C-alpha cells in the first residue's frame, strides 16, 4: 500500500505535468521507472473522468428537475405539456452527448500530451549492446546516457556533435531531449532526413515528440508508416496509434 507522503509526491508530479512545468531529475526517474506511479496515474485518469461525468450529470439533472417543478402546474394544458417535453428532450440530449464525449475521448482536448508521451517512452539501447551499463566508465561518451542522467547526456552529445557530426549522436541527443520533456528540440532533430537513413526507429520517437506537442494527426501519420525491423518498437507504436485514434 502506498503511504501518504508518496501519494502526495505522485500528485505533485502530475500537477507539474498538467501545468507543463519542468520536472527534477528525481521526478523524471519516477515518471519513467516507478511502477506504483504508473498505476496511480491510471487511477487518477479514471477518477478525473468520473468526476467530470458526475459534475455534468448533476448539472443537467438539476436543469431537468428545475423545469419539471416549474411547469408541473401546466400538466393539464396542452402548451405546458409540449413545452415540458421539449425541455426534457433538449436536456437529455445534452447530457447524453457530454457523457459520450467524456468516456469515449472523442475530443482531442481530453488527453494530456506530456503524460501520454512520457508513458510511451521506451529506452533505446547503446550502440554496443554487448556491454552492460556497469562496464561503462565515466570517459565513455554514453556514460551519462547509460545512467539515465539525461541533462548531462545532452551536454555530452552536443560536444560530440561539434567534433563529429555523426547522425548517431544526433539520434541519442534527441532521445535524451525526450526524456527531459523538451519535445520541440527532439522534434527538430528527429525531423532531419539524414536520421531516417541510419536504421534507428526515428519515426517512433518523432511520433512521441509530436504527442508531447499534441500534434495528434502528425503523430498518427508517422505511426502508420513502417517504423523499424525491431518488434518492440512496432508493437509499442501500434499501441500508441490505437490510443491516439480515440482523439481524432
Structural notes for this entry:
The chain folds into two domains: 4-108, no CATH class; 113-247, Tetratricopeptide repeat domain (Serine Threonine Protein Phosphatase 5, Tetratricopeptide repeat, Alpha Horseshoe), CATH 1.25.40.10. The chain contains twelve helices and no strands. It has helices at 4-18, 25-33, 35-70, 78-104, 113-120, 143-146, 150-163, 167-179, 183-190, 202-212, 216-223, 231-244. α7 packs antiparallel against α8 (167-179), α8 packs antiparallel against α9 (183-190) and α11 packs antiparallel against α12. The radius of gyration is 25 Å and the shape is globular. The mean pLDDT is 76.
Q: Descriptors for this entry?
A:
12 helices; 248 residues; 0% strand
Give a short summary of the structure:
With 248 residues, the protein is mainly α.
- Rg, rounded, reads 25 Å
Molecular shape: globular
CATH architecture of the largest domain: Alpha Horseshoe
- For CATH, the homologous superfamily of the largest domain is named as Tetratricopeptide repeat domain
**H/E element sequence:** HHHHHHHHHHHH
The top level CATH class name of the largest domain: Mainly Alpha
Q: What structural class do helix, strand and pairing data support?
A: mainly alpha
**How confident is the prediction overall: mean pLDDT?**
76
The low-confidence parts are none
Q: What is the count of helical runs?
A: 12
Count of beta strands: 0
Give the helix level as a range of percent.
55-70%
CATH topology of the largest domain: Serine Threonine Protein Phosphatase 5, Tetratricopeptide repeat
Percentage of β-strand residues: under 5%
- Number of structurally distinct domains: 2
Largest sheet: none
Distance between the termini: 37 Å
Amino acid at each position: 500500500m502506498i503511504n501518504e507522503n508518496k501519494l502526495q509526491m505522485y500528485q505533485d508530479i502530475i500537477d507539474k505535468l498538467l501545468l507543463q512545468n519542468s520536472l527534477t531529475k528525481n521526478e523524471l526517474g519516477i515518471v519513467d521507472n516507478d511502477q506504483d506511479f504508473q498505476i496511480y496515474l491510471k487511477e487518477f485518469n479514471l477518477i478525473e473522468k468520473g468526476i467530470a461525468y458526475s459534475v455534468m450529470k448533476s448539472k443537467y439533472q438539476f436543469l431537468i428537475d428545475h423545469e419539471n417543478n416549474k411547469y408541473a402546474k401546466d400538466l393539464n394544458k396542452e402548451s405546458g405539456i409540449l413545452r415540458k417535453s421539449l425541455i426534457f428532450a433538449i436536456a437529455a440530449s445534452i447530457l447524453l452527448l457530454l457523457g459520450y464525449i467524456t468516456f469515449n475521448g472523442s475530443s482531442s482536448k481530453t488527453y494530456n500530451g506530456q503524460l501520454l508521451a512520457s508513458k510511451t517512452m521506451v529506452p533505446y539501447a547503446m550502440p554496443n549492446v554487448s556491454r552492460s551499463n556497469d562496464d561503462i566508465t565515466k570517459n565513455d561518451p554514453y556514460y551519462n546516457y547509460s545512467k539515465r542522467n539525461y541533462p548531462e547526456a545532452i551536454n555530452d552529445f552536443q560536444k560530440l556533435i561539434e567534433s563529429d557530426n555523426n547522425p548517431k549522436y544526433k539520434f541519442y541527443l534527441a532521445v535524451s531531449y525526450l526524456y527531459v520533456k523538451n519535445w520541440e528540440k527532439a522534434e527538430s532533430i528527429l525531423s532531419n532526413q539524414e536520421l531516417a537513413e541510419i536504421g534507428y526507429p526515428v519515426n517512433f520517437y518523432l511520433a512521441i515528440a509530436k504527442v508531447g506537442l499534441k500534434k495528434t494527426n502528425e503523430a498518427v501519420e508517422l505511426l502508420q508508416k513502417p517504423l523499424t525491423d525491431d518488434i518492440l518498437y512496432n508493437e509499442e507504436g501500434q499501441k500508441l496509434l490505437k490510443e491516439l485514434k480515440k482523439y481524432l
